[in-house]
Amino acid sequence: MPNHSKDYVTRVLRAPSQADAAQWNSLLAQAGGSPFMRHEYLAALHDSGSATAMSGWDAHFVTLWQGDTLQAACPLYLKAHSSGEYVFDWAWANAYQQHGLRYYPKALTAVPFTPVPGPRLLARDAQARAALVGAVLDWCRQKKVSSFHMLFADDADIEACAASELMLRHTVQFHWTNAGYADFDAFLASLSQEKRKKIRQERRKVAEGGVTFRHAEGSAITEAQWDFFYRCYERTYLEHGNAPYLTRDFFQRMAATMPENWLLFIAERDGQPIASSLIGIGGQVAYGRYWGALERVDCLHFEACYYQPLAWCIAKGFQRFEGGAQGEHKMARALMPVKTTSAHWLAHPAFADAVEKFLEREGRGIESYVEHLEERSPFRQS
Predict the structure, then answer these.
(1) 276-335 residue pLDDT tens
(2) If I label 287, which of 63, 309, 311, 318 is the partner at 20 to 30 A Cα–Cα?
(3) Euclidean distance between the first and final Cα of the chain, in Å?
(4) Domains defined along the chain, listed by start
(5) What mean pLDDT do residues 19-41 have?
(6) 111-131 b/e (C-beta count within 10 Å ≥ 16 → b)
């Protein structure tokens, strides 16, 4: 396979197990780390059957080597659909179909089902990162895929993609930042009177419903608690008419290989568990991930997914809570808009031109949207 530097040997692996976990995680640590790009996380997605060719995630992990040393690597999936990505390109796929062209399979560098910004191109230096982009694009041309997409990438990745003339696309997420609050009441005091009142009302409804919370962290989360969480998680998907993306075996592997990266809140009423929310943790950041309930209690979702995690973050001194994809309603809980970026390459020149023009218009719209959201800040005006 051609490469952009004769110093690197490119190897495309068909499963995470073929990559050296220690070297992979060493590159990740150099990039600032992310629990969702750890070798163990990607391996669990694959080995549990959650993200495999059978579910439309055909793995091809691109690696660059010098001798026995891994210099750069990234996950690369051949996708037969656009589900589980959270950067939506359905309209692009429809346009291809209307013109008698195939959009699928496409190539994707992302963490399956996980819209969390972070490093995607693991590399020892900028040269290796640039070579990795070149190797991925060479592979895409060789396989004659319609397009390549890298989702929720960090600044270094975006810089490398822009240098290779990939098109950039922005979306909006909502993140909470810890301003050094002494406790949850101090956090509430930073909000406008209207927002303080709303949050207190919502928390009161949950308390008056007889609901209390407890949490477990890391290896203290028992197998029975993992089982209960999965019942809640599965129920949420089935209520919306879909099977859950992640299998119970995936979470079993998380408990075995990455226990330190998980925090579980369990809601109880009359001594019985009725709901749960699972939070990812890494560094000084917490990530809202999954939730579900077996009984309905007014405002329980807000308490389980926002107020309990925020109170925990304040108590532990965590710097940020990321609320996941979409959701303007999160601003009422003081999660503020943050732009996230993806990079895109389309093989068809005419479609690439059309998408580039579309992204220019969309980008201006995103800028205006973020400005509009910031004008609706929930914080007190100084």
Answers:
(1) 999 999 999 999 999 999 999 999 999 999 999 999 999 999 999 998 877 888 999 999
(2) 63
(3) 59
(4) 9-172+338-374 (3.40.630.30), 179-318 (3.40.630.30)
(5) 95
(6) bbbbbbbbbbbbbbeebbbbb
